[in-house]
């Protein structure tokens, strides 16, 4: 395997193109780079590959930065714009030209197409072989030209990939790639290598759709005499149907998952398990992921998106999550979905109820649904389903319950004992009183335990809601 120079620190990078949102596949690539660098005390860099000026937008760049920030993947230093490094890329192309590792090619597009048509007709390789490769500079015309890499024609280019293993490319199957266009602008293939070298990147961890690019990029490293980074090409993510992710699979962008109510920690855990494993561990913390993550744990087969697994992991993360952190992420969820923020009245009540709200929750939407009892105010309007529990008999029992609660010590165990005792006096199970109590306190059938709600709401508010419900309508 190719290794970085002795004594050098680990440096990884994430290099998205700002042509749209932060794709879930890109987010996983960023996570793998972040885990590998951070877990080894290295640096994680961000480069925006905005050389495609027609499709790159500031809005897409902002969406990528926002997505990474929400995921908690912090990067070192400022994000680098590839477009702004264009003079440096051109400088390297001209240096390769001066060293004899590149050449000026004056072939026009028509000539290149004519070459390929003739090759097809003769059943030869259509890989373009420029007649200018070994031409005497004295014969160069005064005409536009591109700068091509003078790639080796014989032998092999070998990538010792940390995930894919030894990958061999025959050099006679690789063309002399264009490094500098006729207008003097550098190509993406050159720019990537120059940027990675200049940024000191030691490990290039990216999707395996870039594996073929690695062979041609390796030739640039060799032409310049630069250290070759460790390559690690990771399999792509497929949908649950086993096909490459596309719009038909639904949510594709990181912001979609935030708006669906998943906490960032659960997404990090889930993405880490997409294509990487550590024994049988499914649920793990960031600290464990940073400690365990290595390139050897990445499989060669495509990973499959499975939202049921994500839901299961999310429930575990909510259980483990600090209540204050859950409240902060709930605020972020409300902002991301354009919902009203919590009011000064609601916030302390939601905070007090959070241990019950997040129990077995699979997203923040469910937490908000359970929190309805503190988000709403009197008079409580029960929905159609819970209103059925408030029949005349139930109202009568609620009316009877009120004096028992008025002077009780307001603790969960004592409240439960009072209600249980009253139920027994009527020959009823606890649930028969809990249902109308839930309708009185929350107006919903989905809520925390009635006793937990009473503790959070306090004596006065709880009694007022119960008395409201006990009244005939």
UniProtKB/TrEMBL annotation:
Residues 343-469 form the Aminoacyl-tRNA synthetase class I anticodon-binding domain. One of its GO terms (biological process) is glutamyl-tRNA aminoacylation. It is an enzyme of class 6 (ligase). GO terms for cellular component: cytosol. It holds the Pfam family tRNA-synt_1c. GO terms for molecular function: ATP binding; glutamate-tRNA ligase activity; tRNA binding; zinc ion binding. InterPro entries: aa-tRNA-synth_I_cd-bd, aa-tRNA-synth_I_codon-bd_sub2, aa-tRNA-synth_I_CS, aa_tRNA-synth_I_cd-bd_sf, Glu-tRNA-ligase_bac/mito, Glu/Gln-tRNA-synth, Glu/Gln-tRNA-synth_Ib_cat-dom, GluQ/Sye. PROSITE patterns: AA_TRNA_LIGASE_I. A motif ('HIGH' region) lies at residues 16-26. ATP binds at residue 247. A motif ('KMSKS' region) lies at residues 244-248. Transmembrane segments: none annotated. CDD domains: GluRS_core. It is found in: Cytoplasm. It catalyses: tRNA(Glu) + L-glutamate + ATP = L-glutamyl-tRNA(Glu) + AMP + diphosphate. Residues 10-311 form the Glutamyl/glutaminyl-tRNA synthetase class Ib catalytic domain. PANTHER family: GLUTAMATE--TRNA LIGASE, GLUTAMATE--TRNA LIGASE, MITOCHONDRIAL-RELATED. This is Glutamate--tRNA ligase.
